[in-house]
């Protein structure tokens, strides 16, 4: 296990989470972050200068990465992360539910306990010896919505009705998007691209590498929601190059891309293959928009 690499990946992930959640993110200690950054730099320089086994062995990190991501703008309930030295290469993160002092009376203890149990299940299901904090937070946000619904049932009912009424007009409208990115290399992003597509019942392809290409098809509302979620992630560049949207009698009859497979994660060198697959189902023009 490369401890230095693990700590650098922890710092990178924490920075990415902070950029996404901004005022809902709290690092336990800026001093700890600075200490870890200095430690990584020193250890990396030490390895470069002396490649002997003894000198190349990393010393113990001076502290650990710890932070909280609040699950709503009210900053009432959050996920507290503590990264063990083995994360993300070998060990899952330690994640617990934290409740702001003035919030305890707002939510039943049973609901918070259920949320804590759900969080541990989320961590177990999400961790695959790679960075998983983003997926944990997203899943925890969804679970927290149920807690809020239990505590504020009168407010939640009309919200649900409005959402259903909004989606109904586009229920038989199919959309497609060809999305171009400067690159897709992050394991976390790849997981989100696949997971969100599956959740929203979209089909298509993701060609990682340079450039990154995402082609999705599904109900227009779901495609729009998918694009909004992607834009929440940090990208060097993310552009919708091609877009199609049209009303249909039946959704299934209008879908061109394989429904059963969800979004297929292709190889970095599969641009030609993607072009051929698009050509075979009559989407060559849409594919070619990524060249413009």
Keywords:
alpha+beta; single chain; 292 residues; 4-stranded antiparallel sheet; 48% helix; 5-stranded mixed sheet
Structure overview:
The chain is of the alpha+beta class and 292 residues long. It is built from 11 helices and 9 strands. It has helices spanning 3-21, 30-49, 53-56, 109-126, 133-151, 153-167, 187-199, 220-232, 251-254, 271-280, 284-288, and strands at 25-27, 66-70, 77-82, 94-99, 173-181, 203-207, 212-219, 238-247, 263-265. The chain has a 5-stranded mixed sheet with strand order 8-5-7-6-9. Strands 1-2-3-4 form a 4-stranded antiparallel sheet, covered by helices on one side. A hairpin with a 6-residue loop joins β2 and β3 (77-82). α4 packs antiparallel against α5 (133-151). It is globular, with a radius of gyration of 22 Å. It starts with a helix and ends with a helix. Residues 154-170 have low confidence and may be disordered.
* H/I helix tally: 11
Largest sheet: 5 strands, mixed
Head-to-tail CA distance between termini: 44 Å
Number of strands: 9
Order of helices and strands: HEHHEEEHHHEHEEHEHEHH
Mean pLDDT: 84
> Strand arrangement, largest sheet?
8-5-7-6-9
Q: What low-confidence regions span 5 or more consecutive residues with pLDDT below 50? A: 154-170
Beta strand % = 15-25%
Q: Quick one: overall form?
A: globular
Q: What percent of residues adopt helix (DSSP H or I)?
A: 40-55%
Rg over C-alpha atoms, rounded to the nearest angstrom: 22 Å
Structural class: alpha+beta
Oligomer: single chain
Helix/strand layout:
Elements: H1 3-21, E1 25-27, H2 30-49, H3 53-56, E2 66-70, E3 77-82, E4 94-99, H4 109-126, H5 133-151, H6 153-167, E5 173-181, H7 187-199, E6 203-207, E7 212-219, H8 220-232, E8 238-247, H9 251-254, E9 263-265, H10 271-280, H11 284-288
Parallel strand pairs: 6-9
Antiparallel strand pairs: 1-2, 2-3, 3-4, 5-7, 5-8, 6-7
